[in-house]
Amino acid sequence: MALRFLAELFRSRRHRAWLVAGRISVCLCLTQAIASAQPTDPTSRGSSAAYREDQILVQPKSGTSAAALARFHDAQKGKVLRIFEKIGHLQIVSVAPGETVPGLVAKYQQSGLVEFAEPDYIGHVMAIPNEQNYTNGTLWGLNMIEAPAAWDVLSSASNILVAVLDTGVRYTHEDLASNMWTNPNGGGHGLNALTGSNDPSDDSGHGTEVAGVLGAVGNNGKGVVGVAWRAQIMACKCFNNFGVGTLSACIACLDYARTNGARIVNASWGFAPGSLALSNAVASLRDAGIIVVTACGNSASDVDVNPVYPACYPLDNVVSVAYTTRADTLATVSNYGRTNVHLAAPGEQIYSTFGAADSGSFAYHTDTGTSFAAPYVTGVFALMLVGYPGENYRQIINRVLSATDPLPSLAGKCTTGGRLNARKALTPIRLTVTASAGGGTFQLRVSAATNLACVIQVSTDLAGWSPIFTNATSASGIFDFIDPQSTNSALRFYRAATSP
Question: Which helix (H) or strand (E) holds 280?
Fold first, then answer.
């Protein structure tokens, strides 16, 4: 998908320097509750047409009289169970006894009162069950994405709230407890949309595994370490112990994450039917500047042809992730898509925290799939939001996508053709004077991640800045520039930033 990125001043709290050379100064600005009706057959998780039979989703048409819609609800003997005010006043409406979901959806669509009505579809998490720890190579994925080198730059995202929308999280786990977010309004570590409570305990294990990949506590001498050693993990339970969930539960958790200040959402799950309600919910997060990292699925399928959601929504806050193997190749069962998948990350035999115990051998588990590739990317985004606090979500996404390692097996399979690299993503932009070019001019060099679009800006007073040159760094991460106008100004300041 085409992404647009806004230009902002790139500032780093760790690096700032000034060089004055002749008449040129170079500015180095381094820069409520939902019923938990379960599907009648847990194996329905593989059915793209499965839906709840007791409720539907309805979005009122703009300008529709609330009284008229209420009368229509009454005529259908339907009850409004919940309204999402910030998602177009989306409503969850009960299905009366004797009524069918397709029949009721058709009645609402023909009423002229709604933008759309749709079933409350059922989706599933995207794991492939598989069966110490960093130092012995068990946590191989961290080395693959060069996390140790990235940690030399930054390892903590303690002020970044990351929402894990999944089967819940074992928040008492020895490797997660100190990184769990606590809601200041009423306590609890998140939302259980299946029970309407603030207890998102994990009865599956999947969500706890995801949480460990992105944010297991680092340097504590226990179990594993996440990409971000410190983070605030918000647990949002919208899938049951079979890994099955509904649109309405996911939407409730997305709304909760946005309302409570999450900066990133990890969504290691998917729905095969398209849903306007889910799309609008993800768009509401985009409007709040929230990044949504999604798993693209494990069916060896081209999602450009057979889309899954939210991975394939054309929204610029969505980042869709495939998975790679220990051999650093695209996994044979991973989904892919030149247009709708953005990058890949390690996902084979990922060892992480597990929901069966707080400590000991049952507290950790190995699993495979795009579900566990996505949180690698989520963890890097958490660090990026700390490292580049002045940049918006589009610029942060641009940095990560521009810093992937190209792999032959990913060429034509995702938009970047590359696998996540944490070190490159966290590499700051640096602007230096490399040589005198004669006539009073100087050669400037931009150093950053490889293939990163950067703009050089100039100012005479450090107040107003104007772009004068845009280029992408080379495979070695640099480009050079000479400003021929520098000799006509008594004083000129320069800075480099990510390109819009």
Answer: helix 276-287
Q: β-strands 156-166, 230-237: how paired?
A: parallel
CA distance 443 to 38: 66
Residue 166 bears catalytic tag: yes
The end-to-end CA distance of the chain, in Å, is: 16
Question: DSSP 3-state assignment of 48?
Answer: coil
**Per-residue pLDDT reduced to its tens digit, 149-160:** 899 889 999 999
Instruction: Check: CB of residue 60 under 8 Å from CB of residue 113.
Output: yes
In this structure, how many other beta carbons lie within 10 angstroms of the beta carbon of residue 147?
27
Catalytic status, residue 206: yes
**Beta-carbon-side half-sphere exposure of residue 213 (alpha carbons within 13 Å):** 35
Q: 340 or 466, which is more confident?
A: 340
pLDDT digit string (tens) for 355-389? 999 999 999 999 999 999 999 999 999 999 999 99
Q: Categorize the per-residue pLDDT at 494 as very low, low, confident or very high, splitting at 50, 70 and 90.
A: confident
Which of 206, 284, 483, 499 is labelled catalytic? 206
Which whole-number Å values give the CA distances from 92 to 84, 345, 393, in the listed order? 9, 36, 30
Whether 73 sits among the annotated catalytic residues: the reply is no
pLDDT tens digit sequence for 20-47: 222 222 333 222 222 233 333 322 333 3
Residue 177 half-sphere exposure, CB side, CA atoms within 13 Å?
Answer: 9
Greatest Cα pair distance, the chain, in angstroms, is: 87
**Residue 226 has which token pair?**
């996440």
HSE-CB of 139 using CA atoms within 13 angstroms:
25
**Domains of the chain, first to last:** 17-31+428-498 (no CATH), 49-121 (3.30.70.80), 125-425 (3.40.50.200)
Nearest to 295 by CA among 223, 224, 365, 367: 367
Catalytic residue among 275, 371, 447, 499: 371
Whole-Å CA distances, 25 to 15, 22, 483? 17, 8, 13
Closest alpha carbon to 215 in 285, 158, 152, 139: 158
Paired with 492 in beta bridges are 24
289: its two tokens: 């500047």
Among residues 240, 207, 231, the alpha carbon closest in space to that of 352 is found at 207
Q: What is the pTM of this model?
A: 0.82
Active-site hit among 73, 120, 166, 173: 166
> CA-to-CA distance for 431 and 429, rounded, in angstroms?
7
Among the residues of 2-65, which ranges form H helices?
none
